[in-house]
């Protein structure tokens, strides 16, 4: 079933969210959403190359080794879609906060390194993780994103002042010296065969070393008592171990991908509601993880191929499976990019109401609807959805 707008107020008015007390509370990705951060495209740059990542767009004016602001027409279109999405959420009674961009073109440094650019603040999901009443700032493993937390400090400060029970935490800021990277990784990895790349992924022999804990928040999937942490290009074993120790009251699981370029779990293993999880057809979870879910009576849905995907004309580093990067408004309502009609029809068959959202222009700025948001408050409490243990889980 498709829906366009559902509000509890008179047509043409916006629900008043300011009278409701601010509360940080989110244990999963499907309880009813009450408060969210929506990112901004303003100021985003194609970041300068570094050990962790390289951008190479020779047909679009940014060949390898160059960097600079995203084209103004792309920024304007993405900002319009982000603003419209924020307004849609507000009309549904959801409180919305936005980050404060800084000058991402500036050279940044620590006493141990200097980097020629930053990146942006469109994908807050990469940096911030809400677990219960805690908001945790992730480490980030790109030098270009080391200072990105500054964009969210005004929002976090206001949350801290408004909710006396909020826990505001930050993982140890990493040094990001050359010791944190296999510095020649990108010189050889993309020339390997698919089988060789997958072997490297299975062995977690990727760009990051174990010199220090590193993780992106978007590599963590929250299922109540259980947190699943994907080892990827931006999350190492040490980062997983840090998260496991930081959340001692949770069961924290390390997950390896069958994708040759693992980067963030929220388009590959997507919780929809209790008992139902979506996975990407090209990035199947390992057999032991799938068996663990099935033994706990979860149905695993293989997403249809993204039939309508067309990459934005330039400067996009997203894969077609960004289609699965969706936002739950509650366990019965999903926001999905408007052109992903086949996926919407597939999930409608499971009883979901689908809110189609124009969002294609946002992709080059760091992801989809889930990437562009961080849930601050959802109704609900901590639940155990996996009472039966299996294997290493």
From TrEMBL:
Region described as Disordered: spans on this chain: 1-21
InterPro entries according to UniProt: AmidinoTrfase
Keyword Kinase: yes
Biased composition (Low complexity): 1-18
Active site (record annotation): 216, 264, 371 (amidino-cysteine intermediate)
Keyword line: Kinase, Serine/threonine-protein kinase, Transferase
GO biological process terms on file: creatine biosynthetic process
Recorded GO MF terms: glycine amidinotransferase activity; protein serine/threonine kinase activity
PANTHER family per the UniProt record, alphabetical: GLYCINE AMIDINOTRANSFERASE, MITOCHONDRIAL
Family, as annotated: Belongs to the amidinotransferase family.
Protein name per Swiss-Prot or TrEMBL: Serine/threonine protein kinase
Annotated source species: Streptomyces rubellomurinus (strain ATCC 31215)
């Amino acid at each position: 079933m498709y829906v366009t707008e559902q509000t509890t107020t008179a047509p043409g008015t916006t629900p008043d969210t300011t009278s409701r007390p601010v509360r940080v509370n989110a244990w999963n990705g499907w309880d009813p959403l009450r408060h969210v951060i929506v990112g901004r495209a303003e100021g985003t740059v194609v970041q300068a190359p570094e050990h962790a990542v390289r951008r190479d767009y020779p047909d679009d004016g940014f060949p390898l080794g160059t960097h600079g602001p995203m084209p103004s027409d792309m920024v304007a279109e993405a900002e319009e879609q982000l603003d419209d999405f924020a307004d849609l959420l507000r009309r549904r009674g959801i409180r919305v906060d936005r980050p404060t961009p800084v000058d991402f073109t500036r050279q940044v440094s620590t006493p141990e390194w200097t980097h020629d650019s930053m990146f942006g603040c469109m994908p807050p999901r990469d940096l911030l993780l809400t677990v219960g009443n805690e908001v945790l700032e992730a480490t980030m493993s790109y030098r270009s994103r080391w200072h990105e937390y500054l964009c969210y400090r005004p929002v976090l400060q206001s949350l801290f002042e408004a909710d006396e029970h909020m826990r505001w935490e930050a993982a140890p800021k990493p040094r990001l010296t050359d010791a944190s990277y296999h510095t020649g990784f990108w010189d050889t990895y993309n020339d390997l065969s698919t089988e060789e790349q997958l072997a490297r992924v299975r062995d977690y022999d990727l760009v990051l070393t174990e010199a220090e804990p590193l993780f992106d928040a978007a590599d963590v999937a929250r299922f109540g008592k259980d947190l699943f942490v994907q080892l990827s290009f931006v999350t190492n074993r040490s980062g997983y171990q840090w998260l496991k120790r930081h959340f001692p009251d949770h069961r924290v699981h390390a997950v390896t991908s069958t994708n040759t370029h693992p980067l963030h779990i929220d388009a590959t293993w997507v919780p929809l509601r209790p008992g139902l999880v979506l996975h990407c057809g090209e990035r199947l979870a390992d057999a032991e993880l799938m068996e663990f879910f099935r033994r706990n009576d979860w149905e695993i849905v293989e997403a249809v191929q993204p039939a309508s995907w067309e990459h934005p004309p330039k400067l996009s580093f997203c894969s077609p499976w960004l289609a699965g990067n969706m936002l739950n408004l509650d366990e019965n309502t999903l926001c999905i990019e408007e052109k992903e009609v086949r996926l919407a029809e597939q999930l409608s068959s499971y009883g979901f109401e689908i809110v189609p959202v124009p969002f294609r222009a946002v992709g080059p700025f760091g992801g989809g609807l889930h990437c562009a948001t961080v849930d601050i408050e959802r109704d609900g409490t901590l639940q155990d959805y996996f009472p039966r243990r299996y294997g290493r889980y």
